[in-house]
Amino acid sequence: MTDHPIPRDRDPEGRPRNRRPRDAFGRPLPHDAQGVERVPDDYAPDAAEALHEARRLLGEGRPFHAHEVLEGRWKTSPQEERELWQGLAQICVGLTHLQRGNPRGAAALFTRGATRISPYGPPYKKLAQAAQSLAETPKTPEEAISTIKHLL
């Protein structure tokens, strides 16, 4: 085990947490920097709240934070819904990659997310088709975020 100058953030059960501040695109900032408000690690929204919050955050151009909301639902959802929430979170991470100038990473996540959500039928089939289309023909981050927000 290596000693680190800054100890790793851990919750009371010893699981790693990342309390490092982040910018609006979700990029880590130095520990002493002022970042944007984060989604709490223990956030456990119901389905309606997760979708509402994710749409709101996408409307603010913050797909990384929308991903954190959807991830909160994924971690606490019933087993039969987990692929759906994981796929939705992956699509939002794809949007984050577009914002960060990484179209290749975005395409991979759009494809993975689309594959996970397409079995859930309407309305997720249309969202999966849109994500796959973004993987094949990227748009600007703003256009991509708008497309996904309106289908979510």
Notes on the structure:
- By secondary structure, this protein is an all-alpha fold.
- It has 6 helices and no strands.
- The longest helix has 18 residues, at 82-99.
- The protein is globular, with a radius of gyration of 16 Å.
Characteristics of this structure?
152 residues, mainly alpha, 0% strand, globular
What's the assembly state of these chains?
single chain
Overall pLDDT, averaged? Answer: 86
Any idea what the radius of gyration is?
A: 16 Å
Largest sheet: none
Secondary structure: elements and pairs:
Blueprint: H1 47-59, H2 63-76, H3 82-99, H4 103-117, H5 124-136, H6 141-151
In short:
This protein has 152 residues and is mainly α. Helix content is 55%, strand content 0%. Helix 4 packs antiparallel against helix 5.
